[in-house]
Amino acid sequence: MLFLLQKTPEKILKKFFVVTIDITTRRVYNIVVIKKVTTNRFTFSIFKIIQNKNFSTQFSGGIIMKIAVVCANGKAGQLITKEAVNRGFYVTAFVRGENKSVTKNAVTKDLFNITKEDLNGYDVVVDACGGWTAETIPVIPKAGEYLCNLLAGTDTRLVIVGGAGTLYVNPEHTIRVADGKDFPDAFKPLAAAHQVLLDGLRKRNDVKWTYISPAGDFQADGERTGEYTLGGEELVLNSKGESVISYADYAIAFVDEIANGNHVGERISVVSK
Question: What's the burial of 179, exposed, middle or buried (CB within 10 Å: 0-12/13-18/19+)?
Fold first, then answer.
């Protein structure tokens, strides 16, 4: 179907998508692709209807993925939320106070007041709980356990913002980053809290969890390069021999795992290229 719109001297090509979705089932029924083409004489639009097609990863099986980000106001939580929203996911922020994330869907509630009903219908729950003080660090493993109990026996996956101190530095997996003599004392309580969380996850077979450790140098204001290297249980270095990742690139890797779900029941790690 072709529509003549107006004269213009410029050459432009723009593409728009209009998606028809059942908001109850989240099933995608129709995708209307609108191409706006401008030549040196005319502007016209081409309309094409695509029925029941996979649009991209967020439309897996024709269904839009729903994600709940718990503690979405934190630095990692905000960037993970932004990355997921930019990809077209349906994202809800769970926050204690005013919503500071980019999503318009927000639930104002303390983490430990979240109920099973609150998380019903979500494909993935993100645990972005963090802490830096003596009062907040112990909350990290408690938050993970609480969310595990809410999701136990369900198909909802739990993807957790992890720590680097729990990564191993030898093939035998007997020595961790936090065990090193040069590991700062200031970070030892945080590493210990994450170790309690990870140990608890390893004992669960009733939750579809994934724990994602950043590199040793986790840069809050680092550059978003759009690239990363995926690792496993051991500390991985980049091409420069460094263990570093920006929060922004970590968020990319994190949302990739949300979309693909390739490491259920595993701990993975991320480092820059």
Answer: middle
Mean pLDDT of 112-127: 97
What's the structural domain count of the chain?
2
**Whether pLDDT at 160 is above 70:** yes
| Residue 51 DSSP symbol | E
Cβ-Cβ contacts under 8 Å for 245 (sequence gap 6 or more): 214, 215, 217, 218, 219, 222, 228, 253, 270, 271, 272
Average pLDDT, the chain: 85
Domain identity same for 143 and 34:
no
Same domain, 12 and 79: no
Contact of 224 with 246, CB cutoff 8 Å: yes
- DSSP states along 117-151: HHHTT-SEEEE-----STTTTTHHHHHHHHHHHHH
Last residue of a domain, one of 57, 78, 103: 57
The β-bridge partners of 36 are 14, 45
Give the integer Cα–Cα distance in Å for 193 and 122.
Answer: 27
Do 106 and 31 lie in a common domain? no
Task: Indicate the residue among 15, 41, 57 that finishes a domain.
Answer: 57
Range of the domain at 23: 2-57
